[in-house]
Amino acid sequence: MDDILIWGSLLLVGYVAGTIGSIVGLGGGIIIVPALLYLAHFFPPFRMVSPPMAVGTSLFLIVITSLSSTLSFHKQKRIDFTSGWLFFLGCGPGAMIGAYLSRYLQSNFFLIGFGLFMLVISFVLVIKDRIGWMRYTGSQVRTHTDPDGYTWTYGYNRWLVLGMSFPIGILSGLLGIGGGALMVPIMLIVFRFPPHVATATSMFAIFLSSILGSGIQAFQAHIHWMAVLLLAPGSWLGGKTGAWISSRLESKHLLRVFEALLVVIAIKMIYDGFTL
Fold this sequence. Notes:
Layout: H1 2-24, H2 29-39, H3 51-75, H4 81-101, H5 107-127, E1 140-145, E2 151-156, H6 158-175, H7 180-189, H8 195-219, H9 225-248, H10 252-275
Antiparallel strand pairs: 1-2
């Protein structure tokens, strides 16, 4: 009975993380990491899951989720591969550095820091739809025509993209979150990406950078392979589901629920960090 409960819980966590992560371009690690840490308190097989191992496991699973989403987004012709590779050039090396630094995480500081970071993410997600578009004119000008026939024009400076994506990569590898929580708002607010293109391109860049970051985590033995096997099916299906929902429905209401969920989880993690 306990084995069925464990399998069901992790399958659900993987599916929810993959679905929400794919819809909003986050990658899903923001759900997987705290879920693994709390499941460690209830299921004996996962009591060895430390913060570095939760981060490493999450980063490996983001590879699966983002690959699933990327394949679906590619069929929908929503990925700007040129921009995605550029963001990866900054995020990839950063993810490797962050993955290495995650070995020094301590439980209480990690919980507090991760909780505060989640509050920042929830705030960014709230304001990103309310901030007027910045009139940034970059050296690289791109265009995209959406299914409704509207043509979007956006642009960026390559060095600015590299400079902004490198620290995002460090946070991605350090916290096991994928980095889309910061990458997508930057694409939307600073570079005026079309929303659907920003989400899809972010997932492509996350897929590439997470491969490098999870490689470092595997080398440090920070991946719980049993959790990977149990979470992976749900993450893959969730990635497909999120891409499907994103192409057909407005995600504003789901985002509001997600933002509220982030705040609740963040407060709980900060409280636990101070009371350890």
